[in-house]
Write a structure and sequence with these properties.
Number of helices: 14
Order of helices and strands: HEEHHHEEEHHEEEHEHEEHHEHHEEHEH
Shape: rod-shaped
Largest sheet: 6 strands, antiparallel
């Protein structure tokens, strides 16, 4: 068959091919021939095709599409392209050749279905994109010193890469949902201010799905108009036509979720495993942060009394020294009398109860953040920005409590300075005042017991 000069009898042989073939007039794009394979896939008969242009038959439009050869090709000239065929809903590789048909200049168009190749290519592209995004998410979570910063960067990465209108995080607290973080595409309004304190029961259909650690995947909100009426009305009112939400679960407990509004439909199915993985990484970071907070609390907390420990005292002292405070500083130093004798005679368990009792007294008089247990029987209060009269009033209240309870005896030293030059100087003065009172206590006790003071 000479492709440069064909007759209608010749082109009938193209009906034997499984690939789609049609021939158009080179000047008008009118259909001159459609083979069997293309007629079956487009649903257009030979008779109907003769009244159509190629772009009308394949794309349903009245003007040439990007794949049309609007300028006639010379005989034997070939043009290649690739595109999407709306009539067959397939990706095709197109090869157009200039021919002569029954003496007329025409275009022979061969379309080869490459949809499977395109799908494989897209799947590979999505997998590489997801891998890159997961790697970036892990990097963000590892490098950011706070989860707050990490959320903002993760949402921006998600939204920009997946071309969504909005990316968001909700946190669940005591049965209420709070939109705590949000990224919006340029020009898209923020809904975060109005998404606060929402009763989680309003999303009752979501909860069973999230309990199974699955995504809420809604490609078209019209699909839930009747079945999820309340959710539908809330979502439609905000101009959302599609969304995907993944649960954030810590130790199997739902603590929030991460999601996207209006992502491209072609990406919806591929987003689900990616979003679930990101939610898992976030939940791991939340758990790590909780452990870190617990360890920090244990490092700066005295379990027996509920006060700050010596580490906490040194940290606060350093902070005050470095900040060069321009306000008053009051220091109260306390020492439990007779703790060693109590431990020796009644046992350490009794002594521990004595320490705990002192801690309870301190908490009744002073703010918890100001109290530190700096030794076995020593406590310090650091009072910043408080008037001297107020501090001395608290000390007076404490002495009254001690006077009513003969099971607890504490020596007290106080120092106050309006504008201290050195924090340590004020602490030393309070410490010295406490030791002076302790010496008086031992002298008086020895005199009462009729023995020499050691």
């Amino acid at each position: 068959m000479d492709l440069n000069a064909l007759s209608l009898a010749d082109v009938a042989a193209f009906d034997l091919l499984d690939e789609m073939v049609h021939i158009t007039d080179a000047k008008t794009q009118r259909i001159l021939f459609v083979n069997r394979a293309e007629r079956e896939r487009t649903g257009v008969s030979s008779l109907a095709a003769e009244s159509l242009t190629c772009h009308k038959m394949l794309a349903g439009i009245h003007v040439p599409c990007v794949n049309c050869c609007t300028m006639p090709l010379a005989i034997g000239e070939v043009r290649e392209s690739q595109g999407y065929n709306p009539a067959t809903k397939r990706h095709v590789y197109i090869k157009v050749r200039g021919i002569r048909l029954e003496g007329r200049l025409a275009h022979l168009v061969l379309s080869i279905d490459v949809s499977e190749i395109e799908q494989e290519k897209r799947a590979l592209q999505n997998a590489l994109e997801a891998q890159d995004m997961l790697g970036h998410t892990l990097h963000i979570l590892a490098e950011c010193d706070s989860l707050e910063k990490a959320y903002n960067l993760i949402l921006q990465n998600l939204g920009e890469t997946l071309r969504a209108k909005r990316a968001f995080v909700f946190e669940l607290r005591h049965g209420l949902l709070y939109n705590t973080h949000e990224w919006c595409m340029q020009g898209v309004p923020s809904y975060m201010p109005e998404r606060q304190g929402i009763d989680v029961s309003r999303f009752k259909h979501w909860l069973p799905i999230m309990e199974e650690n699955r995504c809420i995947l809604i490609p078209d909100v019209e699909d839930i108009r009747d079945s999820w009426r309340e959710e539908y009305e809330m979502i439609v009112a905000r101009g959302i036509h599609s969304y995907i939400v993944a649960p954030i679960r810590v130790r199997s407990k739902l603590v929030g979720y991460i999601g996207l509004d209006n992502p491209p439909l072609e990406k919806m199915q591929n987003i689900e495993p990616l979003l679930l993985s990101i939610a898992y990484y976030v939940s791991t970071r939340i758990l790590m942060q909780a452990y870190t907070s617990l360890l920090e609390k244990m490092s700066f907390y005295d379990a027996m009394t509920g006060c700050g420990n010596r580490n906490a005292f040194m940290r606060e002292k350093t902070r005050l020294e470095n900040s060069r405070i321009d306000c008053s500083l009051g220091v109260a130093y306390f020492d439990l009398n007779n703790l060693k004798e109590t431990n020796d005679t009644l046992g350490h368990e009794y002594g521990d109860r004595m320490i705990a009792q002192a801690g309870e007294l301190f908490h009744r008089i002073f703010p918890a953040k100001e109290i530190y247990r700096v030794g076995g029987d020593e406590f310090v209060v650091l009072s910043v920005g408080e008037r001297e009269e107020a501090l001395l009033g608290k000390i007076g209240a404490m002495r009254k409590c001690l006077a009513k309870d003969d099971s607890l005896s504490i020596s007290i030293g106080v120092a106050w300075e309006a504008h201290p030059k050195r924090v340590q100087d004020v602490i030393d003065r309070a410490d010295q005042a406490m030791y002076a009172e302790k010496e008086r206590y031992h002298r008086e006790k020895a005199a009462r017991e009729g023995r020499p003071n050691k």
